[in-house]
Structures are given as structure tokens and as C-alpha cells.
Amino acid sequence: MNHLSEEQLILHYYGEEGETLLAEQHLDHCEECRSLYSSLQRVLNVVDSLPLPQRGAEYGEQVWNRIESQLPVRRKFWNFPSPFRWAVAGTAIAGLLVAAFVAGRFYPAQQQSHRNTILANATTDPQAGERILLVAVGDYLERSQMVLVELANANPKSAMDITSEQERAADLVSESRLYRQTALHSGNTAVASVLDDLDRVLLEIAHSPSRLTPEDLEKLRDRLHAEGILFKIRVLGSNVRNQEEPAASTVPAKI
Amino acid sequence: MELTDAVFVTRARSGDTEAYRVLVERHSRALFRLAFRMTGNEQDAEDVVQESFLRAYKQLSKFDERATFGTWLYRIATNYSLDLVRSRKRRQANLAPSDPEMDDPVLSLPSTDPTPERMTLSGEVRERVAEALKDLSPTERTAFILRHFEGMCIEEVSRVLECQPGAAKHSVFRAVQKLRRALEPLVSPAR
Q1: The whole model's pTM is what?
Q2: pLDDT class of A17 with cuts at 50, 70, 90
Q3: For B20, which of A122, A140, B12, B87 could close a Cys bridge (C-beta 3.0–4.6 Å)?
Q4: Looking at the complex, does the CB of residue B93 fall below 8 Å from at least one CB of chain A?
Q5: Domains along chain B?
Q6: How far apart are CA A142 and CA A139, in angstroms?
Q7: pLDDT of the residue at A97
Q8: How far is B75 from chain A (nearest CA, A)?
Q9: Quick check: is A41 in a domain?
Q10: B contacts of A161 (beta carbons < 8 Å)
């Protein structure tokens, strides 16, 4: 008889996927698995009992009172005087028609990927390209920073499985090529240079062994420190966010 | 019938602060629970709640309406919590590097008068649980908290972590495996 794996027991505990019935039937008949499952339940029950401060029903209102005065003012479009409202709406519709015409004129009819659109926009309209690049790069830098910071702050005394970080690093590497090209096309060499450095580090992470020893982690930390890559990302990210702000209302962004 | 978050998000984006107030009131308690579990500290958790709502408001124009507001808010809160924990660790390392209790936010849970919960889980057990949670990587800890305490399914966890569901599932597995290895001796019936 095949016993349930630890992963199956965990999935069963959380009621994930369609394995519950199968696992239940197996547990009814297998004392060994039942014992393992009981042990898992005891461990997770202990974790459950960590104290948690309670917040009452009025808590939401208290939070609101604390933040209300700090919220930036957001102008209500429909509160503008009527003639102005129609002028803005008319301009927007005209803009959309022009954009649709230009898009139809320059792009082939077949479906284009989001990334190609970024590149195409950046090369045909440098200003729009710059704005789109900033939004995309800002998001990209945030995600890259998360991966690097996780590795940089890993427990220095124990080995670490970095499979999920590697998957994310590989995804980021495949994205970065486009942003680098776009940055170069729009003459933004500073952005391209940081992306280049970041790319090398991410590639190294993506191709490392999936389990890093404390020594490997130390080497990686030294490398990050020596290249100052996290510092560069933070500086660039901050610049990008500052420049991105005025464009936020006109450029659709992904979050 | 209660209106959905999406309705209030749309109104808030057009400048209706009362709509945003509804979102704050709906999500504050859940966000506090998450923030406390991420930071292990009541004051930090309050900061996370407040800052997350402010950041979310400022970034409302970037919110993809196909996504769930709660998931998006959780993502902002988990990222900010991790930043906060890291910066506090660095600060404490500079101030009191010799005090291991101060090195970990989870270990430095606020010490108020004993409550029934605190009495049930005290001393060695509490420290071991905190230590085991501390040994998880930030991704594992976040994935575990979202799955175990917040009851999110793997798909939702992956959306908060911005990774594939397979990677989120493995983060949960690794977290539970590590916790089990660390805590099993503590809960075995022979003890």
C-alpha cells in the first residue's frame, strides 16, 4: 500500500484540491499515516495558539480617523462645471480616436503582446514610451528588489531552498531584456545600465543550485554588497517613482 | 444587498473619500491580524495598517480592476511588513547586538498582563514556536501566514506573492515541513 506523502497530508489538512476524499479513505485504514497526520495536526494547533491582540468592530472607524487627514486630495471629475466637463470629455474622445487611428496605421492587425506594445510605443512616441517604460520598470524593480532582499536577509546559519526565488529571478530576466532595449531606444542609458547589472545577478541566481549552503549565501551577499546592486535599484526605483507620478493618470499600469 | 468592493474602488478613484472610508472599515481588522502576524508587534502592526491604506489610496489609479481589492491590499501590507521587520532588525542589531530576544520581532511580542491565550502558550513553547516562525524565509512565512491563519487558498496566496501557484504551494509545504521538524519534539505524546 502506498502511504500518503507529507505534501498530501498538508494538502489534506488545508482541504486543498480533490485529494481530500482519497486521503480520508486512506487515513481510515492506515495507522502509520494516521499517526503522522495527528502529529501534523498537533504541530499546527500549537502554532494556532500564538496570542493575537483583538480589535473591536469600531477599529475600522479608528483607522479611518487616523488616516483621513493624510489622504491626498483627489479631484472629482464630475464636480467640475458642466462646460468644462464636456470639453474634457470631448478632448478625451478625440484623443482616443487619434490614438486608435495611429495604432491601426502603424501596427499590424494581428494580436500583439503587452511587452511588444511597450517597445512599439516607446520607439514611435518617445514621450509616451518614456512614461510607459517608467511604470513598467518601477514595477519590475520592486519585484527584483523583493527577490534580492529575501536572499540578502536569509538566515546566515542555515541552508536555504531558493527554488521559488529562482523561478521569480528567471521570470524577471526574461522581462528585463525588453526593458533594457526600450531604455536604450529611448536614450535612457542610466536605466539600461542598472538593468544590465541587475540582469547578471538575477541570471546567476536563476542558474545556481536550488539549495544554497550558508557559505553560498554569504558569497551571494558579498556579491550584492560589492556591486551595490540593491542600492542602485533603490535609487533608480525612487527616481522612477518620482518621474512616474505625474504620468500615473495617463498611463495604464499593471499591479 | 451589500455593494462589492469594486463599486467602492471605482467611486474612490473618482475622488469619493466616503467610498474609501467603507473600504477602510471593511478591511482594517483583517489587515491588522495579518500585519501583527507578519511583524509580531502591535505597534508595528498599527503602522502597517495605516501605511497600507495610505499607499493603496495613492496607488488607486494603478489598481487593476480585474483583481480583488483585498488581495491587492494584502500585497501592499505584506511588502511593507517585510520592509518594516527588516529595518527594525537592522536597527536592533546596531543598538543591542548581544540580545537575541530583541533580534526577532516575533520573539519580542508585547508583554502585557497574562491573558488566557498567553497562559495556555507560555514560556518554552511560545519561544520555540516564535523561533520556528523566525527560521522561515520571508516568502515561506508570508505564504504560511496567508494560508494557515488567513485561510487563503493557494491561488490567492500566489496572487499576493506575485508568483505561480506551484511556487506558492511549495512555499507553504516548506514552511509546514520546517515548522514540523522544529516543533514535533515539543508536541509528541511522549512529552
Answers
A1: 0.54
A2: low
A3: B12
A4: no
A5: 1-107 (1.10.1740.10), 111-184 (1.10.10.10)
A6: 5
A7: 61
A8: 10
A9: yes
A10: 174
